Amino acid sequence: MCCCAQTHTGMCPAFQRPSWIPTRLIDLGTRGADTPPHIILTDGLPSQAFPYVAFSYLPNDDEHQGLCEFNLDDMLTAISLEDLPVIFRRAFNIASELQYRYVWIDALCVIRESDEDMLKEVPMMGKVFQHCDLNVTATSADSLLACTSKFDLGGSRNRATFLKLSSRQSRIPWLYQAVPQDVWCDAVVQSPLARYAGYFQDQFFSPRKLHFVGKQVFWECGTLKACEAFPRGLPAQLLQDPLNDNVAEKALRLARMPSEWMMRSRKQKLPAEVAVSWIEVWHQIVGLYSQCIQLDSSAKLPGISSIASEISTLGQDKYVAGMWRSNLINDLLWYIDGTPSHRPDDYRAPSWSWASVEGTIHHLTNLNTCRNFATVLDAHIFLADPAIPTGKVTGGFVILRGFLIKIPAPKFSYIRGPLTAGCFYPDDRDGITDEHYFCLPLRLQPSAFGDYLCGLVLRQKSEPWGLVYERVGMFRCLRGDSLHILGQKKYGLDAYVVSEELENVVDSRPFASDVTIV
Ligand SMILES: [Zn+2]
Question: What's the CA-to-centroid distance between 108 and ligand 1, angstroms?
Fold first, then answer.
């Protein structure tokens, strides 16, 4: 921490002077004073005077009930240490040892049973981690205990194994330091905590992290990744690898990959800097987030809302249930590539949003301008709290003008009917139970193997206010051949125009329509 404070100036955020503080903090008291730990309400207090440690951990079943409306008054006076889980008590000790008086732990600073408090506090989680001095993370009480039972702030423990080896050429033995190649990846990038959706966005915002992951303590800030075996920094050989990237690095790396691949496939020279658009980074973030374990189903959109809020400032775009208004045609083309998935019973987003599905989400890349076959007439979301546009939603619809093609029930991985060579990616394989469905082509997707026609597979649904549709999956048809169905002919490489010979189109001729999807 001293190294970060003294030598990382300009690279890492400064210590000590937060410009914002959470609604509630835990005051551990000063050394020697007799006041028990208690909660303080920060409204009206000067934020600069309250540097704090934010604590991230993996929740488990035998968890403490946490802060409730009925125990808030008691906790403002004293938090009973005996009633706290071991992991929280250890977190308090670590903060004190590091000379921090204030700590933020979600279970003790947010009233989880109160919808009102959750609506207000959850979207501010990004800020909590952005403004903390330090984020202490622990995968379990055991991992915290294992590290802290001999926790030495002087850093004198050495966790490396040394081997003395001599070569054939020289009889003088050399001293080698032996470490597993995946030491960082195992401990930090792929730790159980990193796979937990509730922790996903904390990682993006913390200026510096101290990971307690079992065998040793790891340090991570904007400038340095270190551990007890390598206190001055992990060697580059152990870090320059996609496996060792943290979530933000991974998103950037993954977003760059399709650009590079497209460039190579077109035999063009790769530019010095491959530009990565914020929308591609967002798609990669959604993809990574969707692979996390979601313990609280209703927190799907709130769990990524702080990142969305940051990106909405960056992209100057309107956020609609996990998607972006100006990029909606492309954003609607998310899909699940054969891995298990399901739609939870509890409503959490409209069917056209990836947030309505539990499963690994992929997006088509948005590298070239593509020909669209539908236009967005309207997209509207009903928010649980209108003040939080990236938060929880209670309903929504999108109206698209396009061609609807009736098809028999599609099977997993292929669709039957007029769209030849069509692949079907169901959102929920068990949900395909109707007799007929509809394809709504959205755009042509360029690829190294030719253009694909891509769109949504929909189910008709009768509502009191009229006929609407629900999304059940995505389809993709090989090359431009399927375009004949739409009465389109291909001219040249990229230009498509509407053909005059509509009679020659197959029987199930599509009809142009304004389609409302809920
Ligand atoms: Zn630093």
Answer: 28
| DSSP bridge partners of 424 | 475
Among 451, 413, 410, residue whose Cα is nearest residue 431? 410
The one-character DSSP state at 448 is T
CA of 231 to the centre of ligand 1 (A): 13
Task: Supply the DSSP string of 294-351, one letter for each residue.
Answer: -SSGGGTTGGGHHHHHHHHHHHT--EETTEEGGGHHHHT-EE--SS--B--SS--S-T
Q: Report residue 421: phi and psi, to 5°.
A: 50, 45
Question: Domain boundaries in the chain?
Answer: 2-161+180-241, 247-517
DSSP class of residue 486 equals G
pLDDT digits (tens, 9 = 90+) for 273-321: 555 678 888 999 999 999 999 888 888 999 999 999 888 887 778 999 9
What does each C-alpha distance from 217 to 141, 214, 233, 480 come to in angstroms?
14, 8, 13, 55
DSSP string, 368-417: S---BS-EEEEEEEEESSTT-TTS-EEEEEEEEEEEEEEEEPPBTTB--S
CA of 218 to the centre of ligand 1 (A): 13
How far, in Å, from the CA of 250 to the mean position of ligand 1?
20
Measured between its terminal Cα atoms, the distance across the chain in Å is 50
> Cβ(305)–Cβ(123) under 8 Å?
yes
| CA 243 to the chain's CA centroid | 17
Which pTM was predicted? 0.84
